[in-house]
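Long-time lurker. I teach an intro course on protein structure, and each term I like to show students one example going from raw sequence to a predicted 3D structure in C-alpha cell notation. This year I'd like something fresh instead of my usual example. Would anyone be willing to generate the C-alpha cells for the chain below so I can use it in lecture? Attribution to the forum is fine with me.
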Amino acid sequence: MADRVYTDIEIRDRFSIMDLYDRQLAAAEAWDFDAYDTTFVEAAEIDLRDFGQPVRSYAAYRDWLASLRTVMVAAQRITGGLRVQLDGDRATTRVPVVCYVTMELDGVRSLTYTGLFYNDVLARTPDGWRIVKRYEELAWSGAPGPVS
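-- Reply from a regular --
Happy to contribute to a lecture. Here you go:
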C-alpha cells in the first residue's frame, strides 16, 4: 500500500492540530488558564465519566481544574501518536496520553499515573482549530504510593 499524499491544506491542518495539543498540554502543566482557553470553544463539552466525574461545560470543567491546584502540585503529560480524521472544517481525533501527577493531601505526597485517550471533536474557528467536545477515555491507572 502506498503512503497517502496529503494536500497543502491537510498538511497545514494537521500541523495546526498538533500545535493545539502541544499548547494545551503546556498550558495545563503551567496552570496557565488563559492559554488553556485558546484550545477549547467556549461552549465545549467535556466528558470525564470514566474518572468518576460528570459531563461538564467547558466553564465548569475549567473551574473544576482550578480547584485541583492546591492538591495537584506537579504534573507531566506525554502524548503519543495523533490520530486525526479531517472533514472540512471539522475533525475527530484520538490522542493517547500518559499523565503523571504528584498529589499532596494532608502534607503527604503521592504519585499517580494514568493512561488515557482524548477522543475529541474539533472545529476550525476564526482563531484556528479548537476542541468542541472531549471524551477522556480511561485506559489504565496506578499509584505506587508516597514520594518525597
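Some talking points for your students: The longest helix spans residues 8-29. Strands lie at 40-47, 55-57, 72-79, 83-87, 90-105, 108-125, 128-146.
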